[in-house]
Structures are given as C-alpha cells and as structure tokens.
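Internal QA ticket QA-208
Title: Verify multi-chain structure generation after dependency bump
Assignee: T.L.

Test input:
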Amino acid sequence: MSEQTAATRDVPSTAKVVVIGAGIVGNCLVGHLSRLGWTDMVLLDKGPLPNPGGSTGHASNFIFPTDHNKEMAFLTVDSQNQYIDHGLNNTCGGIEVAREPQRLEEFKRRMTSAKAWNIDARLVTPAEIKEMVPFINEEILLGGYYTPSVSVVDSLATGTRMREEAVAAGNLSVFANTEVLSLETELLPSGFPKVTAVVTDRGRIEAEHVVIACGVWSPRIAAMAGANIPLTPAVHQMADVGPIDVLVESNKELAYPIIRDMDTFCYERQSAGSMEVGSYAHRPILMRPDDIPSNQASALTPTELPLTYDDFEPQMEQAIELMEMLGDAEIKYAINGLLSLTPDANPVLGETVEVRNLWSAAAVWIKEGPGIAQLVAEWMTYGYPHMCDPHGSDISRFYPHEKTEWHINARCNEHFNKTYGIVHPREQWASQRGMRRSPFYAREEALGATFFDARGWERPQWYSSNEKLQAKFPEAFTPRTHEWDARWWNPVTNAEHLQMRESVGMVDLTAFNEFDFEGPGACAFLDYVCVNKVDVAVGRSVYTPLLTPHGGFRGDLTIQRLGEHHFRVITGAFDGGRDNYWFNKHLEQWNADHADAQATFTDRSQGICTVGVWGPNAAKTLAKVTTDHTTAPYDLSQEGFPYGAVQDVLIDGVPCTMFRISYVGENGWEIYTRMEHGLKVWDAIWDAGQEFEIIPVGIGVYAVTGRIEKGYRLMGAELESEYTPVEAGLARPKVKAAALIGKAAYRKARDEGPAAIMCTLSMDSQQCADGYDRFPTGGNEPILTLSGDRIVDAKGRVSRVTTAGAGPSVGKYLLLAYLPPEHAVEGTKLQVMYMNELYPVTVERAGATPLFDPTDARMKS
Amino acid sequence: MRVLVCVKRVPAPGAKINITADGQAVDTAYLAFTTSPHEECAVEEAVQLVERHGGEATVLTLGPAEADEQLRYAASLGVAKAVLLPITEADWDPQRTAAAIAGAIRELEAAEGAFDIILFGNESADSGGFQVGVRVARALGRPIVNGIKGIEVGDGSVRARREAEAGVEVYTIPMPVVLGVKEGINLPRYPTMKGRLNAKKVAVAQVTPSAEPGGQQMVTLLQAAEKSSNTVILGKGPEAAAAVVDVLEELGVLK
Ligand SMILES: Cc1cc2nc3c(=O)[nH]c(=O)nc-3n(C[C@H](O)[C@H](O)[C@@H](O)COP(=O)(O)OP(=O)(O)OC[C@H]3O[C@@H](n4cnc5c(N)ncnc54)[C@H](O)[C@@H]3O)c2cc1C
Ligand SMILES: Cc1cc2nc3c(=O)[nH]c(=O)nc-3n(C[C@H](O)[C@H](O)[C@H](O)COP(=O)(O)OP(=O)(O)OC[C@H]3O[C@@H](n4cnc5c(N)ncnc54)[C@H](O)[C@@H]3O)c2cc1C
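Actual output:
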C-alpha cells in the first residue's frame, strides 16, 4: 500500500476502517490505530496533502499545558510528549500576562493546577517579564504566569509522520483529493442503523468502521448518516505582522516566549521575523459547515477566510499598547481562521449515539490532537480508552436538546469570549435556561430558589426562604470573605443542611433519569453490565458500579426491581446520556447473542418526577399522607419498609413509588410519580411537614454538604475509569458468579489491592496568609506531603481533591481525595494547595466509612 | 503635489468562481474584496510620489457603500484623503463610470485645486475593460498613457516609462496628466497596524455620482467549463525516463 494522490487511482472497494479527514486528528488516529494492530485502513481527505485546507494547516501550533480540567490537562501534556517523541516540539516558554487584578488571582489558581499536573511554572513580576521579552510594555502589566515548557509544534509534519508510519507498516492507504459525498447505513435488528459504506467522488468503500475526523466539517459528514456531532465552525482571528527588526535579528523561529495577553484575550507568538497576533476577543462569529467554501472556491483555503477588520481593530490597539513595535509592522497575512466550538467547549469523541460503528473525533485542538487520537484509537480497540477517563469529551454526554444548532450557537456565543476568561468551577450558563423544569418549579420559585443548570434541568441550589433559619443556626451563616470562594454559593446551604439533619427537608430530584428494562432477559442482561448482583427480590434495589472492560468505573447507579422481569435504573442528570448509550449499545449485542433472553430498554425519564424527603421527621411527615391503595395508613417502619426497599403507595391519593435510600445520610425516601401528579404530591408533603418545620433543601446540600459528610462518591468526580471499585471502597465482599463486563480486570484489581484509597480529609486550618479563611472549590487541588511534595500512587495517579465542601454537622471543611495506602491512614497529616497557598489537612477516613454517622444508624432507624 | 488614484472594489476569488443562481453576480458570500494588482501598484505609486515630492494623495472609488473598505485600505497605506462615489447597483458600465468619475474630479478640483497626476490601474481585475482611465482623461482633456511601469516627476512634466514589444517607450508628458499604471512598477507595501487604525479615522468624502448609463449592459455571467485534467502515468522508476523526455520535447522544454 502506498500514499498516492494521482487522480487515476480508485479507492478500494472494502476496508476495515475508513478515517475521513487528514488533519492532525485523522493522521494521528491512523498512526495510533496501526500501532494497536489495525490493518486494512483507508484515510481520505478532500484536499491535497500535506495541507488539505483544514484548520491544521494554518494553526499557530502552540501549546500552553496548564488546564484546570484533569482530562484536558492530561491529554495536552500527553500530546506534547508525543510531539517531543517526533522531535517536532520547539520549546520557547510562554507567559500569560495580567492587566487586571483578578487575573493575578487566576494565576494563583493556575499555579495550583500546575502543581497538580506536575507542570513547571512560576509567577513573574513585570520586571521579570521585561527581562524575558524586552519589547514588552511592562508598565501596563501587573504580573505574569510563566511556563517554561510552552512550545510550538509542527502539526503538519507530525501528522505526516503518523500517517506514513501506518502506510509503511502496510496498514493504510491514503487518498487525497477524495471527497466523501455520502455515507451508507443498514438497519440493525435493534432499530439502530450501522454504517456500512463511504461513497466518495472516486468510488465507494464498504467499511466496518468509519471515523469522522473532519474538524469544522464534522457535523456535515455525520448528517450524511443521520448522526449528530454537535459543534459549530467559529472564527478565530489571526494576523501575521512583520518583518520586525528585533525578531529578524534573533535569527530564530522562536527566540522569545509566547505572550498571552489574558485580559485582552489576545496572543503574540514569534514566527521567525514576524509576530502572529491572535484574538479571542471579537464578537463570536459562527458559521454553518455547509457554508464553508470548497477548496477550489477559496482564495486561500476553506478555513482561512478574509479577516473582518472591524472585529480585529480593538485588538490591534491593545497589541500595540503591549508591544509598540507591532504598530509599524506590516500585516502580511490576516485571516478569520476557522476552528470548532462545542456547547460546553469540550471535544466530541466516541461512537456516535445515533449510528453504530460511526465514530467522532472532532472539536480537537492541535495541543491535544495526538493524545486524543490515541484515546479514540484505544476506545475503538478496547471498548473504552485506557489512558484516561474521557467522560468530559464523550459524545454521548449530550441530551437531544443540546444537539440543536440553536443550543450549540447559544452556548458557543456565550463561551467564545471566555476562551481566555476566568471561569469559576461552579459557573452557571446564562443562555438556554429554563429548558427543563420539574412540576415543582413554581413552588420552588416562590420559595426563593436560586436555580443551577443540570443538563437543561433547572435545579434549586438553595432557597432564600430558608434565610429565616438565621436565628436558629447563626454560625451557619458565616460569610466567606473571598469573593471567589463565595461565588455561586450561599451560606443558607449550611442552614438547610442542619435543619434537614434536625427535622426534615424536601429535595427536587426530577433531573434523575429512569431507564426501564423489561423482558425475560432483563435481569441477566443487567447482571452482565453491573458489578453487583442484580438478581434480588422484587421490591428490593441494588446500588452498583458499571465497569469498563478495563475494570474502571463506567457508571454508578441504583437499580430497582419492580417486577420479576422489570427493572428500573436510576441515574443522575450528568451521566444520563452516557449511561443511556452504554446500556443500549450492550443491550443490542446481548439481544443478538441471547435469543432466549431478550430484554427491552425504555427511557422513562421524561414522564417521571422525583422528590427526596429526608430527616429524622421524614417518616412522620410522610406517614400523614401515605396510604396503600385503599385509605389505610402505610407502614413506613424499618420492618415494614426496610432500607433499600421499593414500594408502591398512594400519597394523598396519588400513585407513587417510594424508595428507601439516601444520598445525604438521613432516613427517608426518594418518591417517584408521574410528572402530572408531581405538584399534588409536593403540596401534600409540604403541608404534612409544616408541623415539623419542613424546608425545601437545595442541591448544595444533596450534592455537596450532605454527600461529603457521608463520603458518598460521585460519578465523574471520585468515580472515573482510571479507578476501580476496590480503590473507591465500593467493592463487595464477593464477586458474583455471573459474567460481567470488566470481570477479569475487577478480579485482578481485587487480588492486587488498591494503589490508592478514597479518603475523607478535613482542613485543620483554612486561614490564608492574609488572615481569613479560604474554602477550596474542589477543582483538583493537589494533596501534598508535609514537605510540599506531590503524592503520586504506584499507577502514576496524583492525589488531588475530587470534591470539597463544608460539613456543617461535623464542623469541618471536608475534602475527598485518593491517597496511596501509605498516606491513607486515619490521622495522617498532609497539606492541600489552594490558590497557591498550603493548608494543613488530616486524613479523617480511609475508605468508604463516613465521617458523619459512621454506622449509618440514622438511615436505618 | 496633488495625486489622485482611482480604484475599483472587486472580489478576490479562489481558483473556482461561483456565480449566483440568477447569473447576475459572483457569489461573494465568503470572498474577500480587493482592488486589482495594477491599482494596488497605483496606490503605492501615489504614496511614494507624495513621500518623494510632498503634497497629498487622494483615493477615489465609484462603488457600493462597502467600497469604503478599499478606500480605507489605501488610506492605511498613507493616502491622506478618500472619496466615495456611492452607487446602489453592484457596478456601472465603464462609460457611465468614467463620466461620473470625471464629473467628481471636476468638483474636487474646483474645491481644492487641480490634481497634478491622476493614476488608474491599467485595467480592473473583474471586468477588465481597459477604458475607464482613457475616457476620464478624454473628458478632462488631459493626456493619458497606459501600461506605465515607471514615473519620474520633473519640472511641470512627468517622464513615464512603459514596456513595448522590443524595448522601452519613454514619454515626457506635461502635468496635469493621467497615467494607467501596470503591475510591476513597484512592490506595494502591506498596511501596518497603525496604518489600519489611522485609516479608521480618515473621513471619507462623498460625491454623488451622476451620469447617464452607457451603451454596455451585462446580460448574464456564465460559469466557465471546468477544466478537467487527465493524469497519465508514464511509468515507474528508470523505465519512465524515455517517456518523460518525449513529453518534455513535446512541450518544447527540451530541444
Ligand atoms: C481587451 C479589451 C478590449 C475591450 N474593448 C472594448 C471597447 O472597445 N468598447 C467597449 O465598449 N468595451 C470593450 N471591452 C469590454 C468592456 O469595456 C468591459 O467589460 C467593461 O465593463 C470594463 O469596465 P471596468 O469596470 O472593468 O473598468 P476598466 O476600464 O477596466 O478600469 C480601469 C481602471 O479604471 C479605474 N476604475 C474602474 N472602475 C472604477 C470605479 N468604479 N471607481 C474608480 N475607479 C474605477 C480603476 O483604476 C481601473 O483599474 C473590452 C474589453 C477588453 C478585455
Ligand atoms: C488561526 C488559528 C490558530 C490556531 N492556533 C492553534 C494553536 O496555536 N494551538 C492549538 O492547539 N490549536 C490551534 N488552533 C486550532 C486547531 O487549528 C484546530 O483545532 C485543529 O487543527 C483541528 O484539527 P482536525 O484534524 O480536527 O481538523 P482539520 O485540520 O480541519 O482536518 C479536517 C479535514 O477533514 C477534511 N474533510 C472535510 N470534509 C471532507 C469530506 N467531505 N471528504 C473528505 N475530507 C473532508 C478537510 O479537508 C480537512 O483536511 C488554531 C485555529 C485557528 C483557526
């Protein structure tokens, strides 16, 4: 096989894999697939090689490795290492500079993330910046964040290497100037289509797998098969100005560190004798994939559109202010360059939800391209990536309303100017709010709820009506001094927590997803997907992890057995899309393999609402309104309705299903009913609870304070595919007999024992150098030894905060973190870094035993 | 010295020019706009003339409101003044264009004095009519030479050079003069960032163009037939050498 662009060569009629798009992603992907043993691959691009005209051809190609997001930080550093391995990484250093005081705060946060990810970085003064970059106007700067490892890579050459590596191995044929015109699919018995062939202007290729690595064009290609890749092409402006004497005289491609002028959303990067000036400050300029001109009709390339100067002019003034010499340099090249934006600014990776064997590797930057290519190659090879957990980029994370052009544009318009922004970990979206509301919404609004967005659901985070508790719990209302710590937070959460623990509270949990599995194979199928034994008595429930084939967490949820052949999975708002996909994908194979044990899947989420009622007076409250199907009072005692039981009742005459469970450590129930009944049920409970001073309780308690006191783990925070149930403290005494996904790996993890153990830590002091208390947000703050060293376990994973929050009932500020066994010992003294300062912490619990009510007596009394 | 340079806003297309469905215009949805390479040189020449001899350069265009972009581009290079003759149509025929431009020049000159040199591009990049400059010169009763590749200003006259089939023609022409400039006369500069920002502040004067339509009318634009290339593989390795030599001989590269 060979690399050939001659127009005479037809494409082969069959291939195992067709990868569409020869940008950084497609090229690296075929290279990694080849390394993982894939053969018989075809790589297509509509443009010429080595630069087919996509975004890769004109990228500025620099990498700033610091990222607060663990997944992106990992993939960026891994990619940079791959560029280094190719010898195509030119290290020049980079300085992010501050013009505004709040940026200096952000730099402290960056120092903290750099510590977590082991990136060499330091804060620098304006004078130090001047020393490194003599042509900068340091007088307008307050300081900088310097990263020596910042580099510029050769993405075209790296792509060429990876592609040629696969060609040389005999595993790949490459066809440039070959445009994909359509995709063919066939309908599977499951009702899902499967991709079968790629039709190009040079012929048709039957393929087992097709990967879309088409950058800004990806949605257009996906649509050819009826699939959806939610991204939009967007403009990023860049101009090349020069020649500039000082740069020419340096006689180097990169003699000076790259400057990111963070507060003007602008960068300056040397390119030999000239400077590339790029901007993320202009108005968001979004396009449609179908409107991108063809290679032939483009003056430059399809992704290098003419610069719209009106948008760029303010940036030029700011650039000249920072580097006077830029003013007199000629603008030799200026573009409205195209790149991909997604609704949540993360990549879009994995098999498309709509079409089997059709994969997406899109919305990827140069800085993470090679790493993501490897990640997707592993995903295709092993059924889930090994190198890191991809949940933030997983294409199946999106709900249907998040995949519309309307939503994509609304969110991209909102976040484009935050590309260099300071984004709070609890930051809320302003656009596309009110998309999904529970039946309790009006009541919540009247009670002064502040709503947070949970994948479209409006969930009350706290209620101003509970400020009346100030007299009762004055210490709960201690304000947070630092604005950052207090942002998107309210002290009333502490009071809601205490009142719930003292009496009773109601929590809106309508954002839950409910998936029903029915049929003779339902039990066996769920047993195959879940770690814990699903075959329990009707009316009982199971709390269980789902594993990847590699034995890491793929899910974490509860299952209710509603009937002999009827199970209901309850899973959270943030993982509903991913779980839906995972179940469907495996159910399809299950049904194909088990003619005698078929099962069906139904998503019932849109019809069901949920309210949680918890606290010492929960049973008393509910007893007043709960009956069986007659009018007889329902037995809510531990004996009649034990922990983990699921029973059908009437509440004020409304059919409901009650589930005795708790994520906050109190006795109580999740109560499920149909959406249209919801309001009546809420009102009945509310009225019944008045004599107990029932309060509405926000998600601030449910997801943070209540949960963390109980050490309950959350998928996506503590639970990731990089960790096993053994390490999370969720392994049961025995492994069930039935086959299950990830079983061999799970056994191995049990035999080997944990390389890290999930621990609950408390802060011994929260006082910062300025003399007031700080409150870590739980954004990957590193846990350090007393000598300030990072803690890395035997598998190379760093100890960092996965959740942080107040523990109002234990009177401590709590942190969850994995620690290697030698540190995972109760009483061990360590430190946590927050905003570049160190605070003493103590290991309170190693493993799943909660800090609050360690025997769970409250839940079972 | 007062120099006027006339430019026309034209699309900057790629290899393939898309035409709108009604056949009346080039599809410019994602195209940049520019002036012809000749006009870029004319603007550069105007700026250099003023740099050398002092005075002031003015740029003029007849075109849609968006042609403001081409005026400011010239301004960003050092042209001090800009004049727009706004029209609502995409283009005027050359006769009408020339009449309107001549009228505007008379108006400008009445107010601020004659232009010593009026520069045109040799021909525009879109319709390539080779005539607006000539018509304007004729209307103003001034001498014109086209195809100019060198200008030297003397005392009351210019020496202008142009390439001829077998050598170089040199003209001495009294000012005021009209010259059609050809690409190659100079290497146009790019605007600087400061130039761009200054250009934003330049006030664009408007002169309402008035002229009767000329005799020429655009009926429709047709897409040129796509040239298809056929690749013939001449052979592989050393065996291909003879065939390659044949082709080179056929092309006249080898004799
Ligand atoms: C070789 C050739 C010979 C031709 N001969 C004739 C002919 O004899 N008779 C005939 O009727 N048609 C002729 N045509 C066709 C016809 O003239 C063109 O199609 C016509 O539309 C040209 O106008 P233009 O806008 O391209 O201006 P051009 O005359 O090509 O423009 C020349 C210069 O005038 C200036 N200019 C042009 N428009 C403006 C404007 N709007 N504002 C300011 N400055 C401007 C610019 O400096 C430009 O570079 C000929 C075409 C060719 C190619
Ligand atoms: C001005 C600018 C500067 C940038 N600088 C940086 C930077 O410094 N660092 C960084 O990390 N990122 C940077 N980026 C972002 C980066 O360029 C992109 O994110 C990255 O190149 C995307 O790579 P890709 O492989 O996904 O897509 P592309 O490189 O766009 O490749 C997609 C390919 O798909 C092909 N294709 C599309 N449709 C079809 C079809 N129907 N048939 C066949 N082939 C098809 C296209 O021809 C194209 O080659 C920059 C972007 C811009 C605009």
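Spot checks passed. The pocket of flavin-adenine dinucleotide (ligand 1) is lined by residues B 6-8, 36, 38-39, 60-63, 93-94, 97, 101, 120-121, 123-124, 127-133, 216 (CB under 6 Å).
Status: verified.
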